[in-house]
C-alpha cells in the first residue's frame, strides 16, 4: 500500500511536532534533575502556569518566577531524582504532551526520601519550530515519603558541583 503525498505530509508534520515537544520536555526534565535553574528559566514562557495535586496538597502557580521557586525549593545539591516519560501525539494547532513520571528523590537538605509516580499534562506554545512550556499540571498517582535517619555515603553526584 502506497501512501499519498497528503498522508506523507501529515505524518511528517506529526513527527516534527513530536520532536518539537520532545526537545523542550527533555530539557525541562534534565534541568530539574540537575537543578540547572538558569537553563530551566529559558524553557518556559514568562506567564507559565502550573497546577498540581499531590495527595491533599494542591499547587496553583501563574508565573515563571513561582515555577522556578517551586523547583528550587524541591531540588538542590542534596537531591537526586529519576524521571521516565512518554508522549501523547499533539494536534495541528496546539502542542500538548502527557508524561509519566516515576520519581525517586533523595533530599538531604530536608533528610527525606520520596518515591512515587505522577502524570504531567503539558501545553506548549509553538513558535518558529520551537515549543516552550505554557502550562504544566501534575497529579500524583502514588507517593511514599520517609525520613532518612542518617546521611548516606554518596560516591558521586553532579548536583554537588553545579546545582542551585
Describe the structure concisely.
The protein has 164 residues and is of the alpha+beta class. The protein contains four helices and five strands; from the N terminus they run ααββαβββα. The protein has helices spanning 5-33, 37-41, 64-74, 159-162, and strands at residues 44-54, 57-61, 95-107, 112-127, 130-147.
**What value does the Rg take, in angstroms?**
18 Å
The order of strands across the largest sheet is: 2-1-5-4-3
Give me the CATH architecture, please.
Roll
Q: According to CATH, what is the topology?
A: Nuclear Transport Factor 2, Chain: A
- Overall spatial form: elongated
Number of domains: 1
CATH class: Alpha Beta
Question: Helix fraction?
Answer: 25-40%
Keywords, please?
5 strands, 30% helix, 5-stranded mixed sheet, alpha+beta, 164 residues, elongated
Please tell me about this protein's structure.
The protein has one domain: Nuclear Transport Factor 2, Chain: A (Roll). It is 30% helix and 38% strand. It has four helices and five strands. The protein has helices spanning 5-33, 37-41, 64-74, 159-162; strands at residues 44-54, 57-61, 95-107, 112-127, 130-147. It has a five-stranded mixed beta sheet with strand order 2-1-5-4-3. Strand 3 and strand 4 form a beta hairpin.
